[in-house]
Amino acid sequence: PILERGGADPRVTRALGWLLGVVAALLGALWTALAALYPGPLHAAGGVLLLTAGTLVGGLAVAFLAARRGRSGAAFALVCATMAATWVALLTWVLPLAEAQKPIRPLATAINAEIRPGDRIVGYRMNTATSLIYYTRHRVEWAEMPGELRGDLCAPGRVFLVITREELAALPWPLPPLQPVAQRVGTLVLEKPAALRCAATGRIGPRYVVSAGLPSPRPASERLPPSPARARKTPS
């Protein structure tokens, strides 16, 4: 058997060399992608991620050196220990950090504390449709275009709008004076009071007024949550 040989086995050394190279390349590519997509969170959690990656790469490097010296049994034990240590680091440090970056659960908790019968929840260009429905246990209306969102906000009744800061800043018309409810990792929950109504004033968007007499809320929209494969249209 390979593990009982006294000299270095080229198959073990070659396999560990390939494994070390592939792991290092994947981690480097992952770090580059995260730095481009999430520079802020990556900077905050960089120490923990580097420690976890260093545990994996360092353990495999030591196992590779042991295999080159003919200690195949020690190399196998080092690979097992490295995998175990990496999993411990992932579960102890990395997974809690990843969960903390997910905004929907705490935002849903804030909505659940305020929502009343007849209120509506509207999500604008959200890619976490299922999570928002699951955690709020409430029907959610979805808007993919600015015109759809304007229609949802202009409808009678109280509305909780879930929107990211980037999408909020990109809207082609000003929002009404919405009340902030909660925010998490760049995602906001804003409340449109039931007393707020709007009337269309042409292409620049709606004009908002406060109404003393409130009509009954409209029925919930029948729009389905957007699927990941659905193409996002660019507003004209």
Task: Give the SSE map.
Blueprint: H1 10-37, H2 39-68, H3 72-100, H4 104-114, E1 120-124, H5 129-136, E2 140-143, H6 146-154, E3 159-164, H7 165-170, E4 179-184, E5 187-192, E6 196-200, E7 206-210
Parallel strand pairs: 1-2, 1-3
Antiparallel strand pairs: 3-5, 4-5, 6-7
Characterization of this structure:
The chain contains 7 helices and 7 strands. The protein has a 5-stranded mixed sheet. A two-stranded antiparallel sheet has the order 6-7. α1 packs antiparallel against α2, α2 packs antiparallel against α3 and α4 crosses α5. Helix content is 51%, strand content 16%. The protein has 236 residues and is α/β, with parallel strands linked by helices.
Distance between the amino and carboxyl termini:
69 Å
**Which band does the percent of strand residues land in?**
15-25%
Helix content: 40-55%
Strand order of the largest sheet: 2-1-3-5-4
The gross shape turns out to be elongated
Structural class: alpha/beta
Mean pLDDT: 78
Strand segment count: 7
